[in-house]
Write a structure and sequence with these properties.
The protein has 83 residues and is mainly alpha-helical. The protein has one domain. Helix content is 65%, strand content 0%. It has 3 helices and no strands. The longest helix has 30 residues.
Length: 83
């Protein structure tokens, strides 16, 4: 028996995007993570992205949750200003 000590460091960042960037990110995630990764690896190789693939998958999941609502809110606001 003994004592095990484990350390964990967590870092979070907040990223502010404008409407154009949100729409671009949503379009990028719209390809689907598997198709995006396949095309990326085929055309640019996997050396740089492979170590970050898990994070990229989580990022795409989050983008697909957040961006459509933000885009919808922008569209609704713009439409309400027309009348």
């Amino acid at each position: 028996m003994g004592i095990k000590i484990r350390h964990k460091v967590t870092v979070n960042a907040t990223l502010e995007l404008d409407e154009e960037q949100i729409r671009a990110l949503d379009a990028l995630a719209g390809y689907g993570i598997d198709d995006f990764i396949e095309a990326f690896y085929k055309n640019l190789g996997s050396y740089y992205l492979k170590p970050h693939e898990s994070g990229l998958r989580r990022l795409f999941e989050q983008v697909k949750e957040v961006c459509p609502k933000a885009i919808s809110d922008c569209d609704k606001a713009r439409e309400s200003l027309k009348t």
